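cron nightly-structures :: item 1 of 1
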Amino acid sequence: MKVDKPIALLIYGLSGSGKTTLAKAITEDLKLLGVNCHHLDGDDLRSYVPWVGYSVQERLDSARLKASHIKVLLESGVSSICSFTLSMHEQRQIIKDACSGFKVIECFIDCPLEVCEKRDPKGLYAKRRKEEVLNVVGIDFPFEKPNQAEITISPSEESHVCAKNKVIEYLKTSGVIVPSFKSKSFNFKKGFLAGRFQPFHREHLRFALMALKECSHLLIGVTQPFPGVLSEGGGEREFKKSNPLPYWLRAEIIESCLVDSGVEKTRFSIIPAPLISHVLSEIISQDVVIFNSVVEEWNKKKEDIFSATQRKVVTLNPGPKTISGQEIREKILNRDDSWESDVPKIVFDHFRKEIVQRVLCS
């Protein structure tokens, strides 16, 4: 997906409301969808001007500084995902006026002061109660709630993941971000990407989207399990425990994730593909480029299998690995629903029951 024109997303609320955490998660998801964006945080910007205080006038001056940074990014074609306090209507209007040629979307985190004070990640409220600091919003200054923000988040009613998904869904349904995997010039005509996808998670999706930017059509090979074929490059895997999800379910999940990310169905095919070189040679034509990742040690072993097919192998770097299928399955076995943040939204929303049932029965 892409943004037709760069936007500014203002995520604001009291200190401790979760602005920065939400902004970082949204930025990561938008980059996964191919959106050119950058996270701007109020504390980071203030670190460059430590002499600017927190009086009403200084807060307005700080808003002008923030507006100038946002405008530079927007004019450079980069969307700004901002986490600022912006307690006054006037502050928010300053940013809107400075970026009048662009769409500015307000996302207000409506978190009660008592909740923020209980969290107090920076110790700000504790210092104020001891009178070590002054001019704290919520205590010395009221927080002026917006009259009509495009998005309102209520942390007491919505989890962090739900809040992130709510914002992303708004950006999709309002037409702010649109499909970007359509016609363009590609480096390769056909590509091949292999994995067990037990289950298909966020980093699998990121890797697949990277590959789709390189080729006009992507073959996605689902490698395990297949009756009578339990070997991947000589390594035996326990059939049920490591591979609880059948081929048909993984294929359905992968297709749903790619389509939800704006990829046309004509751009990819999903096929069964045991990781055995002579089998791959039979199912992958000579003109297909095989994509491999540099992230895992296992991918180095896969590269040997791929090289034996005598097909061109292209190594992509999807970034540091932070998620594994085994870790997700362990969370499910422990009845830990935090795996929701490890998979694309559509996986948890539409396939959770089926995945959980099969993992628990494996």
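cron nightly-structures :: done
The chain has a mean pLDDT of 87.
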